[in-house]
Amino acid sequence: MRLRISAAPPPRSRASANFSVFGQDLGRYRRALLGWYDRHRRDLPWRETRDPYRIWLSEIMLQQTRVAAVLGHYRIFLERFPNVEALAAAPEDAVLAAWSGLGYYRRARRLHRCAIELVQKHRGRFPQTAAALLALSGIGRYTAAAIASIAYAEPVAVVDGNVERVLRRLLCAKSTGNKSTGINLTTAQTWQHAQSLLAKSRPGDFNQAMMELGATVCVPHAPRCLVCPVRKWCVTQGEAPRAQPPARQKKNQIWCVLDWRSGDANGNINASGEVRLVQRPKKASLMPGMWELPQSSEPPRRLPAAAPWRTFRHSITTTDYTVHVLRNTSLRNNRLPLMTLPGASPAAKGKWIAVDRIPMLPITGLTRKILKAGGIV
Ligand code: SF4
Known about the structure:
Structural class: alpha+beta
Order of helices and strands: HHHHHHHHHHHEEEEEEEH
Helix content: 25-40%
Oligomer: single chain
Bound molecules: iron/sulfur cluster
């Protein structure tokens, strides 16, 4: 990303950390931010459309997920479900399969339920105001404002983690130590201030510009103040307390079995092969009903000589896992003796699933990663 370096006047005094200051200078602040956004924004597919369905999908996918991880999934998801009607008509398993690898699968379930509601109650049309969007199940204040402002140019501000951080630094929200006389922003005040800064002529672009600034310049740990387009208006210029680094993740180990056999159970050696997968309980708190390789938190008692294959690192919510994959393959069809893991439930026997069917199944991100590394999918 190209950014211009510009000289900037010294920061305003902390005493000026209120919004009447912006009142005098608000037009220039908005123009500076929008001008920077026009020149430096990243080219992202959801920025090329005003289609509320595509904007909604991108906003849900981007929650807690990096842009780079979303890009491929966004394209594939839209190929399978190009509009709200197609999404509503799909079985939930197909939606989860298209979501596989993005994690936080509740988002996919909510997206699907909301699509059904849109079709049943709104003939597949999105309401055009944030207030009406908020009445849909699974759409919160941020998402409603993002869709309404970007798709329909409604002048409503968004506040996500990036916007909140930018505002806190711009306005000198409460600091620590005896240096600061900063202000403390409640959630309600943060939304009010975001609303008061919003450029009503280009609300969608302005909202995206605030988020882009937080994502690429006013970043959590080392804000790039020297290249910041709104440095002139910023009270702290990076002196505000930095965000706490995320808490250390827990660490755990898992053993997984990759049982693969060629052909199929009917002796058809030309079939694409089969993999043994286990379905997680439908009531599991994490990834209910999804399919995965048999796994256990304990290592196997006896290992076939060729079994240890690869070790992967994988994170699920707040836990980092070291995953030891044991490979058990057979070119003699179904004579493959199953490898069992201690502590695995009886259900861990699982089912042989044809490799061709796997793209249609909701499989966990870890299983997808392993099957990909094995050249199976
Ligand atoms: Fe202020 Fe620096 Fe953030 Fe710009 S990057 S808003 S100057 S803290």
